Every structure is written in structure tokens, then in C-alpha cells.
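call fold(seq) -> C-alpha cells
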Amino acid sequence: MLSRRAVITGAASSLLAAPLAGAAFAQSSDDDPYPLPKFDYSKLPEPFRPAVVNYSGRQWPGTIIVDTQARQLYLVLQGGKAMRWGCAVGRDGFRWAGLADVGRKVMWPRWTPPKEMIARSPEKAKWANGMPGGPDNPLGARALYLFQNGNDTLYRIHGTTEPLSIGKNASSGCIRMVNQDAVELYRRVPIGSRVVVLAEGV
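ret:
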């Protein structure tokens, strides 16, 4: 498991910078089958709103860093900057940390609850063969599928139908973002991008 302490000088500590004024973030996509309305970010505490921050760590531009303890996700940019978004992470007993790569990207993904989830919540059995993508789908508008050594970890970075869960330990292990933020990350991140998920409390 990758510890937060192990990469503190190369990631998390160097991201604790004040947001820069005037950062522009897209709200939807012109070719989106379900166009998204603007999201009112005043509903979220400031640390979980989109921002551009200074970055002096050692991760390459294009790397995604998920700080599970702070519940923030970063995309490293050129020129000593990073984009920052708030996220929701796994509840107690459902957290995952480590190194992965983006192995797949999907617009309005289909959601298939794992057998373990159905066992905990039998009402989800109706979606055992998959819930079609759309505004009511819990994976939201976009999903990045995390792979290790070519194998699906079953963990995702994805949008959500519950934007007010951002900043909380709320998911079954996946990393949730506001739908509009997930759209922006999806646009910027190609398949094969490295993802660093820092362990909480280590």
C-alpha cells in the first residue's frame, strides 16, 4: 500500500497552496448526450471547489494524485501548477490506495454493482446485469477505470448523483467527483495516465 508519508515531499505537501484567481473550468461538453447544467460550487466548502494551485513535487505532468486524507484530487500540469478538485472517498473498510493507470474511459458509463454490494444491499439486485448510463446512474457523467498491470482493480474515478457527498468518506471505495469536474478531468487525461492514490492515516 502506498503511504501518504512516503510521497509527502513529492505530492501532498507541495499542493497545499492558495488557489489562483481566475481559473476557468468547463461545465459540460458540446457533444454530451445529457448536457449538464452549471453547478453551484458555493454549496461546497472552499477546499473542495475547483482551483489551480502551485505544485513543486516530483510527479510528472499528467499524473493524477488523490489525497484521500484531504479528500482532494489533483492533476499535475506543466509549469509548476496543478488543477485541484474536491472528491469523496471510501467509507471505513472500503478505502483503497496504491499506484494505478487509467485503463479505460467512458462517457455516461454503465453501472454494474458487485456481488458483495448486492449482498449488503439486496435492492440493488435489479441492476445485477447493469444499469444503463444516464443522469440517474451512480457513476455519473464520466468514469476513469483504474488498472494495475493490465488488470481492472474495480476502482474508478467517476462523477456522482450526490454532489454534496464531495469532501466526505462516502463511497464504497471509488473516488467520486462533481459531474462537471469529472467531465473536465476526462477531457484532460488520456488512457495510460498514472494515478497515485495516497493512503489515509499512514
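Confidence is low (pLDDT under 50) at residues 1-13.
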